[in-house]
Amino acid sequence: MQLSNFFTLAEMTRSDTAARHGIANQPDDPALQNLKALCAAVLDPLREAIRSSITISSGYRGPELNARIGGAKNSQHMQGKAADIQSSRVSVLELFKTVVRLRLPYDQVIFEAKNRNTKWVHVSHDPARARGEILVATFSADGSSVRYRAVSAQEALDLADPIPTTRSGTTLELAYEELPDEPDDAVFEVEPDPAPAVAVAVERPAVKRRKTRTVKRRAAGKRKTVAKRRPALPRKAIPKRNSAPRRKSTAKRVRAKAKKHR
Q1: Is 197 a member of any domain?
Q2: Would you list the DSSP string of 170-216?
Q3: What are phi and psi of 129, to 5 degrees?
Q4: Closest to 94 in 3D by CA, of 81, 83, 85
Q5: Which helix (DSSP H) or strand (DSSP E) does residue 56 occupy?
Q6: CA dist 151 to 93, 94, 134, 191, 192, Å?
Q7: In which domain, by residue range, is 154 found?
Q8: Dihedral over Cα of 254, 259, 261, 262: its sign
């Protein structure tokens, strides 16, 4: 069955582990639709960009196959949303960077390099979300354990290959192992944010402000001015203006005197 322009169902379900253990690795309808979406949204545009074939090292993993490999309980491989990919012409690191550079709608992309030749890119697509999560896997010296470190898009583009891959002419000699290649929350490492600065109270000597002295001076001046004021007189003691009796005219005084001697 053709899932997209460049990928088939047989490619997306092939598994050496399933073949060895006789596991029927066929997706149900929801997983099949997710495989089509993954191919159309991410894998086909990536194939066109690098102009070279892409090998699906591991695509869909049914529950039985995922348990046999020891994959994560919520592995996106089981849902048909993830694939591990390589290319014989383009380095795995360049494949990883191209996914990031093209800003494809990936949910998660991981650069995984177990040793010089065992390398691959894990990429997933979720039609319901696109977290754009970028991780770099670091394997232990014996390859028995792996940790995942989150990086920014710019850090991914600046990444150097710690273990250059062997070439045979123009062909890369790559190997692949079906491993549990996506992190559980327990092994997902995110560099902690720097601790917030703690404010420390600094005790400073008290400084007398000029404003305080000015207020006191003004208050003192006010009290001094009030003390110089004359006390108010009682209302009844205040003499009325023009209250003195008027003197009689001369004619009136003569008449009054003559009337008195009659």
Answers
A1: no
A2: TEE--B------S--GGGEE-PPPPPPPPP----------HHHHHHH
A3: -160, 165
A4: 85
A5: strand 55-58
A6: 14, 16, 6, 9, 12
A7: 9-189
A8: positive
In a domain, 152, yes or no: yes
**Please, are residues 132 and 150 in contact by the beta-carbon 8 Å criterion?**
no
Q: How far is CA 150 from CA 108, 111, 188, in A?
A: 11, 11, 8
Residue 145 falls within a domain, yes or no? yes
Give the 3-state secondary structure of residue 62.
Answer: coil
CA–CA separation, 123 vs 111, rounded Å? 9
Give 192-251 pLDDT, tens digit per residue. Answer: 344 344 444 445 555 555 554 444 444 444 444 444 556 665 565 555 555 555 555 667
| Residue 205 placed within a domain | no
Q: How many domains does the chain have?
A: 1
Please spell the DSSP secondary structure of 218-257, one letter per residue: HHHHHHHHHHHSPPPPPGGGSPPTT-SPPPPPHHHHHHHH
At 25-75, the pLDDT tens digits run 999 999 999 999 999 999 999 999 999 999 999 999 999 999 999 988 899
pTM: 0.69
Q: How far apart are CA 240 and CA 238, in angstroms?
A: 6
Rounded to 5 degrees, φ, ψ at 80 are 75, 20
Query: Phi-psi category of 257—alpha, beta or left, where left has phi over 0 and alpha has psi -120 to 50?
Result: alpha
CATH number at residue 176: 3.30.1380.10
